Amino acid sequence: MPTLTSADGTTIAYESNGSGPPIVLVDGALCDRRGPMRPVAERLRDRFTVHTYDRRGRGESTDTLPYSVDREIEDLRGLVEIAGADVGVYAMSSGGALAMATAAVEPRIGRIVLYEPPFMAEVGDDAPLKAYTAELDALLAAGRRGDAVARFMTHVGIPDPVIAGMRSGPGWPAFEAIAPTLAYDDALLNGGRVPRDVAASVTVPALVLSGGDSPVALQQAAKATAQALPTAEFRLLDGQTHDPDPDVLAPVLAGFLT
């Protein structure tokens, strides 16, 4: 497994597959490169060199405390340097905030696609977001990783009976192992508001996507992100949710990132 060493000494594990123009895929919360991005990468590697990676604190990557958004930006910039010039970046959910912040300072990024970055304070009261941040931080500080994961899942709308079933399943320890990274994604989301100063600095072509069957609030958050980006286009994918079908998503990415 190839690795890169980020600016603060963190080891970042990554994979590169396929041939053609370079693309980097950026995961959202509670995911690593073996999760939802893997089938997307498989559908793109016949036309692109696709780079996937474990964000710090996940999978086979290490972590260095204290966390800083700037350090995550350095991680992604390191992968972009390996990928080469004029890199396309696709980022999912909260990973979109990371991709946008990186595109604002990394000249080798040529285009970005963001899928439903959840800047939810753009479309409603930010009190629930503040409560979530406080509760998440308290649970992690107390070492209650399982409860922190459950709190995140409640936050994103997963029903309590489903969460209870997951807690007794074989995949739950993996979630607990990367629970501290939930605070990293929360920090990236800037209190739920699009960082307009950062967005204004992203001058490369951008596409912001949302699913037609996603909650209206997520669609509106994606639209707010597109409106803040100077060169962005917003597009709705009919029939898709926050977990889009790779067979629907991949052609859209290929068309825009080519």
Explain this structure to me?
There is one protein chain. This protein is α/β, with parallel strands linked by helices. The protein contains eleven helices and eight strands. The chain has helices spanning 37-44, 69-83, 95-103, 127-141, 145-155, 160-167, 172-177, 181-188, 196-200, 216-228, 246-257; strands at residues 3-5, 11-18, 22-26, 49-53, 87-92, 109-115, 206-211, 232-237. It has an eight-stranded mixed β-sheet, sandwiched between helices. Helix 4 packs antiparallel against helix 5. It starts with a strand and ends with a helix. The mean pLDDT is 97.
Secondary-structure blueprint:
Elements: E1 3-5, E2 11-18, E3 22-26, H1 37-44, E4 49-53, H2 69-83, E5 87-92, H3 95-103, E6 109-115, H4 127-141, H5 145-155, H6 160-167, H7 172-177, H8 181-188, H9 196-200, E7 206-211, H10 216-228, E8 232-237, H11 246-257
Helix pairs in contact: 1-11, 2-3, 4-5, 5-6
Our estimate of the beta-strand percent is: 15-25%
Largest beta-sheet characterization? 8 strands, mixed
Structural class, by secondary structure, is: alpha/beta
End-to-end separation in angstroms reads: 27 Å
* Helix fraction by DSSP (H/I, runs of at least 4): 40-55%
What is the spatial order of strands in the main beta sheet?
1-2-4-3-5-6-7-8
Name the helix and strand elements from N-terminus to C-terminus, one letter apiece: EEEHEHEHEHHHHHHEHEH
Pick out the low-confidence regions.
Answer: none
Put simply, the count of helices is: 11
How would you describe the shape?
Answer: globular
